[in-house]
Amino acid sequence: MDRGVQQIVTPQGDVLVVMPLAHFERLSAAAGMFIFSDERDAEAVPAEVRVAIDEGESPLAAWRRYRAISQSALARESGVSRFTIMRIEAAGAGAGNRQSRKLLAAALDIPVSAI
Q1: Which pTM was predicted?
Q2: CATH number of the domain at 37-114, out of 2.30.30.100, 1.10.260.40, 1.10.10.60, 3.40.640.10?
Q3: Which residue in 32, 45, 61, 103 could disulfide with 78, CB within 3.0 to 4.6 Å?
Q4: What letter does residue 4 receive in the DSSP assignment?
């Protein structure tokens, strides 16, 4: 186990991991997770996208609208079916499989972690 990383086993048998924040941030970045650790990170997301997400729109829909692209056009551009795009938009952040999110993110020119 890495230095500074601890495992805790709960009474229910769940294994929890405690680690230094810097280590977690490196792992999160490598995994493509989208974490607003401070205001500088939040500034990287356009205000229109942040507001739409805060108002309940899915991240994928917010970015798609910001880029002014229809679901059909995004489907053609990404190779992901329109039905899948509709399902991901309806389900919200982190929905869909990793490959679909990767293709959609590439088509929208955003990090996978943003959707």
Answers
A1: 0.62
A2: 1.10.260.40
A3: 103
A4: T
